[in-house]
Design goal:
Number of strands: 4
Shape: rod-shaped
Largest sheet: 4 strands, antiparallel
CATH topology of the largest domain: Beta-Lactamase
Radius of gyration: 39 Å
CATH class of the largest domain: Alpha Beta
Strand content: 5-15%
Strand order of the largest sheet: 1-4-3-2
Helix content: 55-70%
Structural class: alpha+beta
CATH architecture of the largest domain: 2-Layer Sandwich
Length: 289
């Protein structure tokens, strides 16, 4: 097995191990970054929902009090406003979702489905729980959801949701008396849930991973060619020339020029030693003659 082949085999083994380790580490880092990006988007959406609710509650509803006595306007409700805003967002980005899921809602569209019901139940069982995150499969692929409880902390909420008799007549006229009542102070009645798709960040992570691995392959290919050229020029060719010259000298062909010993490396030391050996051999043969 030649020196070049041994060198290349070692180089290939080292590169394969390094490529495998870098692939595992880089893949893990990119996927972690993708998940972090999804979580940040979920936090941003939840913050936007709170902002819409707060704006509606502080700057819209107070200006409609007189009109609400005559006609119930669902647009004045913070939860309705937040749902409508994100409903408009879903027209352009259907993979994003926001819902104020409630076990017994006034508006039937807010009724919690099975998986939302499980989240609400966790909040009901653990009053200290303020946030819950998870992942689920959707028609748009894997999504991360962020949920926060809807708890009755403001007594004014019970004006509309305690009993039908206490609720505004205009609201009862719109939604009826069957749903949205019986809520109690401090009770967890639902959860705000935002869902953010993982497909786009993961696609970006996959593209970055492929680019990184292709770049590593290109760097290795370049290093492989350069190292083999350097090995050939600086080591293999001088050694082969010295080996051929040593064979010739061993048969008494002393007319060949001496090796180049001017190099200040191991090959130069070897050339100097061979030149010294050649002169010693030539003197010894002359003495024998």
């Amino acid at each position: 097995m030649g020196l070049r082949l041994k060198f290349n085999l070692v180089l290939l083994v080292v590169f394969a191990v390094g490529l495998g380790l870098s692939a595992v580490v880089s893949r893990r880092i990119l996927e972690t970054n993708a998940r972090d990006e999804v979580v940040r988007n979920a936090d941003l959406m939840m913050g936007a929902a709170y902002a819409v609710r707060g704006y509606t509650n502080r700057q819209i509803t107070p200006h409609l009090e007189l009109q609400l006595m005559r006609t119930f306007l669902p647009q004045s409700l913070p939860a309705y406003a937040a749902t409508e805003v994100f409903g408009a967002l879903r027209e352009q980005h259907p993979q994003f979702a926001y819902k104020e899921a409630v076990l017994n809602p006034t508006n039937p569209r807010d009724l919690a489905v099975e998986w939302e019901h499980d989240i609400i139940q966790q909040f009901r069982e653990d009053p200290a729980l303020t946030e819950f995150r998870g992942a689920r499969d959707t028609p748009f692929g894997r999504s991360v959801y962020l949920a926060r409880p809807i708890r009755i902390t403001d007594p004014s909420c019970l004006r509309c949701h305690s009993t039908p008799d206490a609720a505004p007549g205009t609201m009862v006229k719109v939604y009826g008396t069957a749903n949205g009542f019986g809520w109690k102070q401090g009770e967890t009645v639902g959860a705000q849930i935002v869902s953010v798709p993982m497909s786009v960040p993961l696609q970006k992570a996959d593209a970055a991973f492929r680019t990184f691995m292709l770049l590593q392959l290109a760097v290795f290919a370049l290093a492989f060619v350069v190292l083999n050229a350097v090995l050939s020029v600086l080591i293999i060719r001088p050694v082969v020339r010295m080996a051929n010259a040593a064979d010739a000298v061993s048969t008494g062909r002393f007319e060949l020029p001496e090796f180049d010993g001017t190099r200040r490396d191991e090959i130069g030391l070897l050339a100097t030693s061979l030149n010294r050996l050649r002169r010693s051999l030539e003197k010894a043969l002359h003495l024998l003659e």
